[in-house]
Amino acid sequence: MVQAWYMDESADDPRRPHRAEPSRPVGLEQLRRLGVLYWKLDADKYENDPELEKIRKERNYCWMDIITICKDKLPNYEDKIKVFYEEHLHLDDEIRYILDGSGYFDVRDKEDRWIRIFMEKGDMITLPAGIYHRFSLDEQNYVKAMRLFVGDPVWTAYNRPADHFEARGRYLEFLAQTV
């Protein structure tokens, strides 16, 4: 089961858990109301997993690749880590499936507060187009993830403020309907 919680306000190392005190856990239903979808899969059989194939077919996730984020594997590692942690949005859904290692996706709730989602091996998440978010490794400094897309991959991130994009407007309309 996914672990998620409201974050503290500390600007300390983003690889730390940053749990608010007192602890304020966030459940799957609250994430769903933000448009965040989650699945738990068997990452050891990702190459031939009928459950993954079913999700990909149902949601039209037709393109994929695998990225390993660690100092030894990712070119320009330090710069990329900083870019991933900048608050941004995409014009398309962001779909990630953790095959090994772990990290955090942070998303904004309706009141603009940060929710941290701990992702580890077997976790798959979809962040909707238009949601402000960011990513950080945890203190293990390693994650291997499958990136999935509907259609051809689009890597463009738009740092906040990016409220003028149609995808952001659609996302805000979605939030207004999930009162």
Describe the structure.
This protein has 179 residues and is α+β, with helices and mostly antiparallel strands. It has one domain: Jelly Rolls (Sandwich), CATH 2.60.120.10. It is built from 4 helices and 10 strands, in the order βαβαβαβββββββα. The chain has helices at residues 28-33, 50-59, 77-85, 166-177, and strands at 3-6, 37-40, 63-69, 88-89, 94-108, 114-120, 123-127, 133-137, 143-149, 158-159. Strands 1, 2, 3, 5, 6, 7, 8 and 9 form an 8-stranded antiparallel sheet that branches. A hairpin with a 5-residue loop joins strand 5 and strand 6 (114-120). The longest helix has 12 residues, at 166-177. The chain is globular. The mean pLDDT is 97.
Concise summary:
By secondary structure, this protein is of the alpha+beta class. It is built from 4 helices and 10 strands, in the order βαβαβαβββββββα. It has one domain (3-177): Jelly Rolls (Sandwich), CATH 2.60.120.
Indicate the overall shape.
Answer: globular
What is the first-to-last residue Cα distance? Answer: 25 Å
| Percent in strands | 25-35%
Extract low-pLDDT stretches: none
Would you identify the CATH H-level superfamily?
Jelly Rolls
Organism: Enhydra lutris kenyoni (northern sea otter)
GO molecular function: acireductone dioxygenase (Ni2+-requiring) activity; acireductone dioxygenase [iron(II)-requiring] activity; iron ion binding; nickel cation binding
Catalytic activity: 1,2-dihydroxy-5-(methylsulfanyl)pent-1-en-3-one + O2 = 3-(methylsulfanyl)propanoate + CO + formate + 2 H(+); 1,2-dihydroxy-5-(methylsulfanyl)pent-1-en-3-one + O2 = 4-methylsulfanyl-2-oxobutanoate + formate + 2 H(+)
Keywords: Amino-acid biosynthesis, Cell membrane, Cytoplasm, Dioxygenase, Iron, Membrane, Metal-binding, Methionine biosynthesis, Nickel, Nucleus, Oxidoreductase
